[in-house]
Design brief:
With about 475 residues, the chain is α+β, with helices and mostly antiparallel strands. The protein has 11 helices and 28 strands. It has helices at about 1-20, 270-290, 305-315, 330-335, 350-360, 365-370, 375-380, 385-405, 420-425, 440-450, 450-470, and strands at about 25-30, 35-40, 50-55, 60-65, 70, 75, 80-85, 90-100, 105-110, 115-120, 135-145, 145-150, 160-165, 170-180, 180, 185-190, 195-200, 205-210, 220-225, 225-230, 250-255, 265, 270, 295, 320-325, 340-345, 410-420, 430-440. Strand 6 and strand 7 (about 80-85) form a beta hairpin.
Length: about 475
């Protein structure tokens, strides 16, 4: 009888799957006076939830429907009119038309497609005086050490007005910025003595208030239509590690890739050699705070050949060798889609993609490659070193992604194997190469150049190194 019930349940489950509608937005494109959506299934107007928000200087039409958006948030600019499409929550895709004055718009349906257009002639002429686009806070999330807000537009950290004050029983920091809080007032507690409140202070000013019985060191990060405000150092993962004293005998060599005549990957004025040097120095400072002895292959802009990079690690009898690089897309077409954080350990390549990345990073070292005999290469691929390097790569990837994802939407490129020449000469120690992101990606390149993002990268990588030593004592 139990078997019959199981078969019946399975049958009913399959039927429910067959008749359930899993709608996907496969892609979107800009058309004349609007956008067109290609869908996995047909849809009708009854499945749309349509609402409008109006005030004196702005008009928004919002269309929600149950669907999964294949891709990231996209904004389309038509001058006076803006249309955006985004995954509002795990079930709902949201379309928003945004303009200064109310205009006529239309939704059209075709087989497995939807078009959202506006009537250009219906835009009322307004004064030639330039009006400032309003920023709306659409969602508020609690994080371990602060609040993260989703916005309808980018905001700059310089637009945040901060002031602090001390009270008899504690401290308070206030941040004001021009925005409309769609979600209403919200208050969260980080612990029994620390809380953060967000509210609409005036009709055009949003205010975040951070109160604590301890002195507050605020952290503010604005990136990709998201704003994070929290307390620096609050629950930053330091408790995962052994005491500082126990690390005094551990030596880590940090290698900033490229340098001098070798600029590495390039995106306009951004050079890989500059970005990775800044991050490498920050990683070293984080590890010094934790009690490690740090050596750099380079601490300024100079070229170092392959053998000298790993010779430093061998001469210092290092316990670990870390090489820092930034990735790049192979062409302009791929630049907008290729992004993410990846960690590699030395091994014969297992995939074409690993080979391609290794070939790119190995280019500057090819003249030195013959320095290593096949015997040395095979020695470096001992089972013990591969296992140790793999473990280190996993710890770095996990801790860095965990920290970055609290503030940013970061692609997890994973832990991979590849034959990087720079790792070959590091003997008797785990060695990994970290690709901190794609310098060619439009938004990721801006992050890589920003101090706040580099600080988080350094903290995450340092936490991963700390975790490795703690788990492999």
């Amino acid at each position: 009888m139990a078997k019959i019930y199981k078969l019946l349940f399975l049958f009913l489950f399959c039927i429910s799957l067959a008749y359930s509608k899993n709608l996907f937005v496969l892609d979107t494109k800009k058309i004349e006076n609007g956008i067109s959506l290609r869908l996995s299934e047909s849809i009708n107007k009854k499945e749309l939830k349509i609402s409008e928000l109006k005030d004196k200087d702005s008009y928004r039409k919002i269309i929600d429907f149950e669907a999964t958006l294949e891709g990231i948030r996209t904004n389309y600019d038509f001058g006076d009119v803006k249309i955006s499409i985004a995954q509002f929550n795990p079930k709902i895709t949201r379309l928003v038309l945004n303009t200064a004055k109310e205009i006529e718009s239309k939704i059209s349906f075709d087989t497995k497609s939807l078009s959202f257009t506006f009537e250009k002639s219906s835009i009322k002429k307004t004064s030639t005086k330039k009006t400032e686009s309003k920023i709306y806070i659409t969602r508020v999330f609690k994080e371990a050490n602060g609040l993260k807000m989703s916005l309808n537009a980018d905001i700059d950290e310089k637009d945040l007005q901060e002031f602090s004050m001390k009270y008899k029983n504690g401290y308070r920091s206030i941040i004001n910025f021009k925005a409309i809080l769609d979600t209403g007032r919200k208050e969260v507690s980080l612990d029994k003595d620390t809380k953060i409140t967000i509210l609409q202070y005036t009709p055009s000013i949003a205010r975040v208030v951070v109160s604590s019985d301890k002195k507050i060191n605020l952290e503010k990060i604005a990136d990709d239509k998201e704003l994070f405000i929290g307390i620096k150092g609050f629950d930053d993962g330091k408790d995962i590690s052994p005491s500082t004293k126990s690390q005094n005998n551990k030596i880590v060599v940090i290698d900033a890739g490229h340098g001098g005549k070798d600029g590495g990957a390039v995106n306009g004025k951004l050079l890989e050699k500059d970005i990775v040097l800044s991050i490498a120095l920050k990683i070293g400072n984080e590890l010094k705070k934790k009690g490690y002895k740090i050596y750099y292959t380079r601490s300024n802009d100079r070229f170092i050949n392959l053998r000298d990079r790993t010779k430093i690690a061998n001469d210092k009898k290092a316990n670990m060798f870390i090489s820092i690089h930034a990735n790049a897309a192979p062409n302009k077409k791929a630049a907008s889609s290729m992004q993410g954080f990846e960690t590699f350990f030395l091994s014969p390549a297992r995939s074409e993609r690993s080979k391609e990345i290794a070939e790119k990073e190995n280019q500057s070292d090819l003249e030195e490659a013959n320095y290593f005999s096949k015997q040395n290469f095979l020695h470096s691929l001992s089972r013990e070193k591969i296992i140790a390097s793999n473990r280190l790569a996993i710890d770095i990837q996990r801790h860095t992604l965990s920290l970055l994802s609290k503030r940013y939407k970061v692609n997890d490129g994973g832990v991979r194997e590849a034959p990087f020449w720079v790792l070959v000469g590091a003997q008797d120690m785990p060695a990994v190469l970290v690709e901190v992101g794609y310098i060619t990606h439009p938004s990721e390149s801006k992050r890589l150049a920003s101090k706040s993002y580099q600080d988080l990268l350094a903290q995450g990588i340092a936490n991963g190194i700390q975790s490795y030593f703690y788990n492999n004592r």
